[in-house]
Design brief:
3 helices, mainly alpha
């Protein structure tokens, strides 16, 4: 009888150790899974941060360009030159001569405006 009881006692100890190891293994697996998910989430957030930084820089650049353009539009001479070039406006008894440098400047301005309008879309 003692051997049967000692075997049972031994079996219970083995079962306890097995259950303890199983619980520890499940706990460790859960922790590893959480760590893996956290690492993946951190990587995704880093990618999103880089995208937002690029978008922020583009927005700042666009803001500077628009501020410069607003400043130009507040300059009466620039507005007058723009009206003459784009709208073909003239003052009474005024002759307009096309100067190649100014035409190139106007073409650059038109290309820039077109690029800005394409970015906004």
């Amino acid at each position: 009888m003692e051997t049967t009881e000692s075997k049972r006692s031994q079996q219970r100890k083995s079962n306890r150790v097995f259950l303890w190891l199983l619980g520890t293994l499940l706990f460790a697996a859960t922790l590893c899974f959480q760590i893996f998910n956290n690492v993946q989430q951190t990587e995704q957030l880093k990618k999103n941060l880089e995208i937002v930084k690029v978008e922020n820089q583009q927005a700042k650049t666009r803001q500077i360009e628009l501020k410069t353009y607003v400043d130009l539009l507040n300059d009466d001479e620039y507005v007058l030159k723009l009206a003459r070039a784009r709208g073909f406006y003239t003052l009474p008894n005024e002759l307009i001569f096309n100067i190649p440098e100014e035409n190139a400047m106007l073409q650059n301005e038109q290309a820039r405006q077109k690029a800005l309008s394409n970015q906004g879309e």
